[in-house]
Specification:
Layout: H1 3-17, H2 27-36, E1 43-47, H3 54-68, E2 73-78, H4 81-99, E3 106-109, E4 114-117, E5 122-127, E6 147-150, H5 158-164, H6 173-176, E7 182-186, H7 192-202, E8 210-214, H8 227-232, H9 237-243, H10 260-265, E9 277-282, E10 290-297, E11 300-308, H11 312-326, E12 333-336, H12 341-346, E13 352-354, H13 383-396, E14 401-402, H14 407-417, E15 422-426, E16 429-432, H15 435-442, H16 450-454, H17 457-460
Helix pairs in contact: 1-3, 3-4
Amino acid sequence: MPPSLSRTNALVAAFKAGFYDLLSLNPKQQEALQILMDSDTKALAFGGGANGGKSWLGGEWLMLCALAYPETRWFIGREELKRLRESTFLTLGKVRRSLGIAREAYKYNGQDHYLQFANGSRIDLLELKYLPSDPLYERYGSVEYTGGWIEEGGEVAFEAYDTLKSRVGRQLNDKYGLLGKILITCNPKKNWLYTEFYKPFKTGKLLRGLRFLQSLVTDNLKRESGAIEALEGIKDKIKRERLLLGNWEYDDDPTVLVPFEHIADLPRNTHVPDGLPAITVDVARFGSDKSVIWSWRGFRAKLERVLVGADTTVVAKAVREVMQARQCPPSRTVIDDDGIGGGVRDQIPGSIGFVNNSRPLPDPTSERDRNTGKQLPENYDNLKSQCKFRMAERMVKAQVYIEDPGPTVWELLSEELGQWKRMEEEDRKMRAVSKDKEKEALGRSPDYADPLYQRELLELVRPQRRGLL
């Protein structure tokens, strides 16, 4: 038997016997491998900083699993296949050489992107890019895997993870006594990784079967020389906090109106009471934008309709249907009245138009001027800023509940709410960041979040004035 094959067989035997200290892993990686081979964990989020040995662990785990259990099928997924091939795939080669695994142990199929092992096992390379034509990742909905690894999980949509976790545990798991599980390697990112793994881990509320394990550059005993110095030299404070220190609470931007932890709580604020019905509508200005309709009971919100490329007649018809279904009168229906939104409002008599740049309104609950007896407008530059600040304050106080609109929309909505920020005050007036700035930061229009702050108009407009704005 060739020496390389003898070495491979010895490593596989040690791996199957649980002698992880014989492998080329540091203590933190060994701890992660123990979790990956236990009989309880279904998903492990491993990482929290750059150069923490995340990719090496993933490569070693899958390669040894494929060698140890013939005919099994595994996957490595990343947002872009190109980056997977240029980075993660190269790490696999380094892992193989470091372990002394025989090169003939597997072959790479460059046309269909998978590693075929001599024992019949296989590792597929998957592109997990979000496609509007396949939002639920049905392209992987019928594939059966033993287990798999999502690399750079912060770049991957929740639906990819949600679909793939239903596809593991389906290929010879019973034969080998393996629990189907997914490894997610990641750096800190305030998306589904934060809400599904990190925050529940910090609060001791991780769901059964889920684990989180932090790994930093200081844990990686085989890091490249100069790795720590390179991370310490990062000028951007937030980037340095994330990649060097593994800080998941990195977003300390003082201009943010709704900190992420309060955004994450919105679907959990089930204590918010019911109230009068209301509807808020943002009308698309361009073909790529969406017309979005939210319904309300008090401050309990539900996403009702999302229309892409619809004209005003179609949008107005959808609004009327939601009004009827939710028994909401026109006097409690707020419609964006900028641009073509006025065409929708015209078709729903008695509805309230929301004009973003109009004057801020007096708060009906505020005290009156002692001299004139009038209530003065609040100190904002326009109505949009006034309503956005008010709604943000209400969200921070846990006075708003948003019914979960599904993982795709929720992730988009969370990003949009994270762009609700204050600008530097001019003339002592409070200003929210413009929509153009939000678009620039998001790379798209904040269609889902805009109707949420419009709900505050109903708290500002007195009943006798409604419909007259």
